[in-house]
Amino acid sequence: MEVLRPTLININGRIYRKNVIKEQVYQDEDEEDFSYSGPVTTQCVDEPCDTLSMEQTEKGYRYAMDVPSVLYKYIIGKKGETKKRLESETRTSINIPKQGVEGQIVITGQQRGAVTSAVTRVEVLIESFRRKQPFTHFLSFALNHPQIQERFLKFKEEVLEQCSEDHGVDSSIFQNPAKLHLTVGTLVLLNDMEVTRTCELLQQCQECLHDIIGGKPLPLEVVGIEYMNDDPAMVDVLYAKVQAKDGSDKLQVVADQLVERFVTAGLMVREWDRVKLHGTIMNTLFRKDPSAEDKGGSGRPNTKDREAFDARSILKKFGTYHFGEFDLDAVHLSQRFSTDCTGYYTSSGLLKFL
């Protein structure tokens, strides 16, 4: 199936079909000690591969590309094997800055096609291993309005009073009220340049959002709770339902349009046809670590590390609980592992709806 339906990779707006990259992992070696076997091959889907704007020099051609320093090791490989193989196969020279030094990777060669091939292969390697990095930022809608926080704390108090005897229900699995939010999409931003580029793109979404909500805050209501899995007696995540107060789908449309913009720009990977908007209020990952939601890997949490809880009584007694209403007026580019002066995630960027 990988041959019939190869992975499509969006690199700076260019779409490639990617053949399999074979990684050889060595025992008792660090993460960066790996190499690949066989050539990295790609084929452009929507445009020719010779559209790169490169510099012509007396000795041939030169192309400089911005690459976060944390990804250098994937181009170098174990004992430099990956870099040597790329240079040999494309007949180019690849100059990489010292580890930890932010800069440009410079590829030079006598033939334009050779440099283009090397650039493409390096980009595909970078994109492949970028996807293995845990996300660093996420677009979010803050739900931590004072009224919502107050009603959430009341909900927590009443649940603990009435349902604490139910299996797995205790105070440790409740969300931090100051960090109540909706996640729109996650991003891997590995240096300041990438954060700046993302902030610029976020600002460019202003006109699109204006067309949807008219350049004013979007009144929302947070009413009712729902669970993620099939068995209400074995629940890991309970979330509050959020919708536009006027009953429209404006909130969903805004979220979907934001993701579409960022996916098209190659800054976000599409996970679903539509954004799954949910405000987590209880999560069994918090049982061992209150900040677990911020620290998880790029994949799904390990179910072995969590103890589910019985949510049947909570759903019966609080299924239509009213957490309150507020006007949503911004989308944040939020940092993981962070807290600002309000208790919410630190924002690297902000787009106001006004």
UniProtKB/TrEMBL annotation:
Q: Which GO terms describe its molecular function?
A: RNA binding
SUPFAM superfamilies linked to this entry: Eukaryotic type KH-domain (KH-domain type I)
**By its UniProt entry, which SMART domains does this protein fall under?**
KH
Q: Which UniProt keywords apply?
A: RNA-binding
Domain of life of the organism encoding this protein: Eukaryota
Q: Where is the K Homology domain?
A: 59-127
Q: Which InterPro entries match?
A: AKAP7-like_phosphoesterase, ASCC1, KH-I_ASCC1, KH_dom, KH_dom_type_1, KH_dom_type_1_sf
Q: Gene Ontology cellular component?
A: nucleus
Which GO BP terms apply?
Answer: DNA alkylation repair; regulation of DNA-templated transcription
Cross-referenced PANTHER family: ACTIVATING SIGNAL COINTEGRATOR 1 COMPLEX SUBUNIT 1
Q: What is this protein called?
A: K Homology domain-containing protein
| Organism name | Aldrovandia affinis
